[in-house]
Amino acid sequence: MTGFQDSRTYRAWGRAHRFAHAVARPRFADEAASLLAAPDGPTSVLPYGMGRSYGDSCLNRDGGLLDARGLDRFVAFDRETGLLEVEGGVTLADILRVLDHAPPSERRWFLPVTPGTKFVTVGGAIANDVHGKNHHEAGTFGRHVAGLRLLRSDGRVLDCSMADNPELFAATIGGLGLTGLILRAAIRLKPVPGPWMESEDIRYETLEDFFALSEESLAGWEYSVAWIDCLAKGRALGRGIFTRSRHTGEAPAGAKPRTAYEPRLSVPLDFPGFALNKASITAFNALYRRRIPAGGTRGTVHYDPVFYPLDAIGLWNRMYGARGFYQYQCAVPTAGAPETVRALLETIAAAGQGSFLAVLKTLGDVPSPGLLSFPMPGATLALDFPNTGAATHALLDRLDAIVAEAGGRLYPAKDGRMPAGLFQSGYPRWREFAAHIDPRFSSSFWRRVSVPVDQPSLGPSPGPSDSPPSHSPSPSPRP
Amino acid sequence: MTRLAVFGATSAIAGAVARLYAAEGASLFLVARNAARLEALAADLRARGAAAVTTAVADLNDLDRHPELVERARAALDGLDAVLIAHGTLSDQAACEADAGLARAELTTNFLGPVSLLTALAPVMERQNRGSIAVIGSVAGDRGRGSNYVYGSAKGGLGVFVQGLRHRLGRSNVAVTLVKPGFVDTPMTAALPKGGPLWAKPERVAADIRRALDRGPAVLYTPWFWRWILLIIRLLPDAVFRRTRL
Ligand SMILES: Cc1cc2nc3c(=O)[nH]c(=O)nc-3n(C[C@H](O)[C@H](O)[C@H](O)COP(=O)(O)OP(=O)(O)OC[C@H]3O[C@@H](n4cnc5c(N)ncnc54)[C@H](O)[C@@H]3O)c2cc1C
Ligand SMILES: NC(=O)c1ccc[n+]([C@@H]2O[C@H](COP(=O)([O-])OP(=O)(O)OC[C@H]3O[C@@H](n4cnc5c(N)ncnc54)[C@H](OP(=O)(O)O)[C@@H]3O)[C@@H](O)[C@H]2O)c1
């Protein structure tokens, strides 16, 4: 039997938090149950998937982690109905590998919702109720979960769905790993004609253009997203490349489908922190935009580069140097969305921070079953910021004020620093959710955002013991 | 279509080998002692493409059952193209030094069990006049070391047995391979500190085993560099070796 072992290597994707954990790696459901039953285990535990969350929502400082990746088995797959049941540690890449190898005579199925990387587990996708470029049509991942099996720390194994244990089901969708360990889940896949996508890239010049293109693409385009040049100012503010796509049955002549099912290990070393500065980012952004001719491009391409362009670069998170980075992702409501996004972009451009990866997308009104689901009808903006300590934090605090004012919220999957007040105002059902938390389960994120706040609005980050050493940054290995 | 039988199927290494065969559409026969885990494995392998998966629950220290298990495997698959013997336990050396009964039990799991299985398998393979067998030994069997010589002697003894069996079955077109993994990140080694270039993932080792089952070498060190590490360790003169703390 494998027990809990001390480890300092478990990180989140942003790499800004470096915590010690006691980690156990169950391979079978019965092992997970014995680990929770063992009297000598850590006082609190948290499931850990692929660690593709950016901040501390997948970390449990000085507590236990249940690394769920060993629970990586398919349970059942009905190729007629597309109902797929898998264990919680199965990754979306594992699923795509099986779907891609369907005999040609059989129906083709695809993930109903997928985030921008396929290296996430099903447990992680449920716990953050992830969304994809088809949010306006399909809603979140949780909407496609027919049922799930939860292991609680008291040893109970509970099957949850809209019909069975519906409250616990709603709490577990977007439940941040706090309601118990997801042993398995059944997902309703989506029928597709094949692995090919019709995809169009459009270069656009203003923020108004973005909203107009999004509106226009609602009819007929299942997927849409925009990459924006977050350093552009004035009239050019919000300019970028709008990408829309849809599945197609027509294969391009001579092309072969090719998916990389294993994470690449390129960028193996931490880049020196200065490699990403304003000048290099401005240059990159200008070049990247001009890649697309003024008239746009259109073509038939494989799904892999459409959905997972970053997977091709491997461990790109290391580009931000040893101090790591933050991603800031907010959702803001439809009413006033253009003005709010403009205010956010103006603040970022004025600060001259920001990075290559700035993404803007409209969100639809398909409801999620989850209590703490992140998306809301409106728009979502996501940007990476290299961790430069106090300056980064000051900018993010200014963005918080704009988001709070607009009635928006931040995405826990990407967060490592939001103040408790912003979490509590953004997720009004958080107390209802808290009643379903397993008493043994906790996370650094949760301890941070659930502290009592006087007025449920803004305040500087309280910075309890779990917060990262952002103001006294850890020394870089190289000067 | 390939037909593979796995003894000790819940092992992390064996599980990774079985997945490679499943993806090729092979038919599998799996033996392990935990029924629920075995069923979970079988369902997974079916979804990943195995043409058919049959299971048998058995404690492989129950040596008397071996002939029956081998016969069931042969019958279920209608012949055996490949066989993997993977079960084992990493003995607690200090506990074995204090308790000869425990040492004997470890030798049963890691030596007598595989020996008894192979003895039951040999005539079946001989009659087929084809097929290959891979038996998981260990680099620990290459030289006795103070820190784990009970486990090491079981694996070393198994190595000599496999060598002899290979010699015998070579006349019947049956290849027998001794697999010698180095440090592999599996539950067996959960208590050891991990990380660094010497540690391999079970998938890596499984890919080597898969290839060896096609090619049938006498010995497979996996990953490959262990061949050279062990060459040096074997060549160290006793006077030098005694002063190391391996
Ligand atoms: C390049 C990139 C692109 C991304 N794009 C998007 C996107 O487009 N949309 C989006 O929504 N997100 C996106 N994300 C975020 C990512 O999808 C989520 O953070 C996801 O939850 C990560 O899954 P994981 O398996 O890595 O889980 P982790 O990050 O390890 O854990 C996430 C949460 O899941 C819980 N958890 C994990 N396994 C289990 C289990 N078995 N049972 C219960 N709880 C569990 C953990 O406790 C934690 O709370 C992106 C991330 C990256 C790195
Ligand atoms: N990991 C390494 O570093 C390493 C190095 C060299 C050699 N090896 C060898 O590789 C082989 C596979 O080990 P692994 O690394 O994959 O570890 P593992 O996952 O712990 O597998 C060992 C397996 O042996 C099974 N087993 C033990 N006693 C058994 C018995 N009496 N009857 C039936 N099954 C029994 C266990 O079954 P349960 O699941 O029911 O406990 C377990 O599935 C072993 O022979 C090991 O000695 C491993």
From TrEMBL, chain B:
Signal peptide: none annotated. The keyword Lipid metabolism does not apply. It comes from the Bacteria. Keywords: Oxidoreductase. Belongs to the short-chain dehydrogenases/reductases (SDR) family. PANTHER family: DEHYDROGENASE/REDUCTASE SDR FAMILY MEMBER 7B, DEHYDROGENASE_REDUCTASE SDR FAMILY MEMBER 7B. This is SDR family oxidoreductase. It comes from Azospirillum oleiclasticum.
